[in-house]
Design brief:
By secondary structure, the protein is an alpha+beta fold. It has 2 domains: 1-48, Single Sheet (N-terminal domain of TfIIb), CATH 2.20.25.10; 50-142, K homology (KH) domain (GMP Synthetase, Chain A, domain 3). The chain has helices at residues 50-73, 111-124, 126-131, and strands spanning 13-16, 22-25, 31-33, 81-90, 96-105, 136-142. A 3-stranded antiparallel sheet has the order 1-2-3, with no helix packed on it. Strands 4-5-6 form a 3-stranded mixed sheet, covered by helices on one side. A hairpin with a 5-residue loop joins strand 2 (22-25) and strand 3 (31-33). Helix 1 (50-73) crosses helix 2. The longest helix has 24 residues, at 50-73. The chain is globular.
Length: 144
C-alpha cells in the first residue's frame, strides 16, 4: 500500500444515477452526463462513461509524468502524445475489472530512445502507482 507523505491537492466529485446519471466536480468545472456505451446496453452515446473519464485522466497524468522523466533525462517531451485505452471486462467470481494500454509517442525519438523515459514516467505517475499490481497496464512506446 502507498501512503502519502504530503498532500498536494484533493479533487472532489460526485456522481448520481450510476452509468446513466451525472457527475460533477466540487468546483463545477467538470459536469458531464453519464451514459452506458452501446456495447454495454446503452441506447446512445449522448454522454461519457467512467472508462472514458479514467482513460482521459490516466493519459493526462501520464503525460505529466513524462515531462518529469524527460526533464530528468534532459529530453523535451512537450510534444509527446499519450493515448490510453481502458478495457472493461469480467474477472473471476463474476466481478468486473479493468485493463489499460498506454500508447506513447515522443516526437524526434526512436522507440529505443523513448522507451526508458516511458518506463521512468511509469514509475513516477500517480495513476501507474495506484494501479500497479492491481490491473494489467501495458506500455507501448511508438516511433516519434
Amino acid at each position: 500500500m502507498i501512503t502519502l507523505i504530503k498532500t498536494l491537492y484533493v479533487a472532489e466529485a460526485t456522481a448520481t444515477g450510476g452509468r446513466t446519471g451525472h457527475a460533477k466536480s466540487s468546483d463545477g468545472l467538470l459536469s458531464v452526463a453519464l451514459r452506458s456505451p452501446v456495447e454495454l446496453g446503452g441506447t446512445d452515446n449522448s454522454g461519457t462513461n467512467p472508462e472514458q473519464l479514467f482513460a482521459a485522466g490516466y493519459a493526462a497524468c501520464f503525460q505529466g509524468a513524462l515531462a518529469v522523466a524527460g526533464r530528468r533525462a534532459k529530453v523535451d517531451t512537450s510534444a509527446s502524445l499519450v493515448a490510453a485505452k481502458v478495457t472493461l471486462g469480467t474477472i473471476e467470481g463474476g466481478a468486473f475489472g479493468l485493463a489499460v494500454e498506454l500508447q506513447v509517442t515522443i516526437p524526434g525519438l526512436t522507440v529505443e530512445q523513448a522507451h526508458p523515459i516511458v518506463e521512468a514516467a511509469h514509475q513516477v505517475c500517480p495513476y501507474s502507482n495506484a494501479t500497479r499490481g492491481n490491473i494489467e497496464v501495458k506500455l507501448t512506446t511508438l516511433e516519434g
